[in-house]
Amino acid sequence: MSYLAKLKQIESIENFENVPGMELPKPPKPPFGSFGSTNTEDIEKNIIDDSELKRESRRLKVLAMLAEKPDSQRAIITDLDSGPDDVILTIAIRDQYTFEMQIPKDKYDAFTLLEMINKGLIQ
User: Fold this and answer.
1) How far apart, in whole angstroms, are the C-alpha atoms of residue 104 and residue 7?
2) Cα separation of 81 and 52, whole Å?
3) What is the CA radius of gyration of the chain?
4) What's the rounded Cα separation, in Å, for the pair 78 and 80?
5) Which of 25, 52, 77, 95 is 20 to 30 Å from the Cα of 18, by its Cα?
6) Residue 27 — φ and ψ, nearest 5°?
């Protein structure tokens, strides 16, 4: 008996009790492993990749700031949210380099940083 004939027989209520047993096809295997993996190396690799992406994003942001203002020699951004204990300063100096500094949050003072920038102490 074909699947369609069996389905029609199942759908008719009066014959529901008399339907012979039917074996359903097996579902295909999933193309991936389970989500319950606890391999910490994979988790740490993803965290490292995420921090690298954030670092590159900050670097591109300061370079874009320099591109927008050709008369500026430097661009500085602060990232207060990347880590629980540190503030990350990303600094770009035109035609030279970009770098990052980590400052402990309890030592970071935005007004002191702004004062240093305005006085030209950060060249």
Assistant:
1) 69
2) 15
3) 31
4) 6
5) 25
6) -70, 150
Contacts of 72 (CB under 8 A, 6+ apart): 65, 66, 94
Residue carrying the six token digits 């430097």: 74
Would the CA dihedral through 102, 56, 98, 60 be positive or negative? negative
Q: What amino acid is encoded at 62 in this protein? A: V
**pLDDT for the residue numbered 50:** 78
> Is residue 93 pLDDT above 60, yes or no?
yes
CA dihedral for 35, 51, 82, 86, sign (positive or negative): positive
Torsion angle of the four alpha carbons 60, 62, 68, 71, in this order, in degrees rounded to the nearest 10: -140
Domain boundaries, the chain: 47-108
Q: For residue 89, what are its two tokens?
A: 């300063």
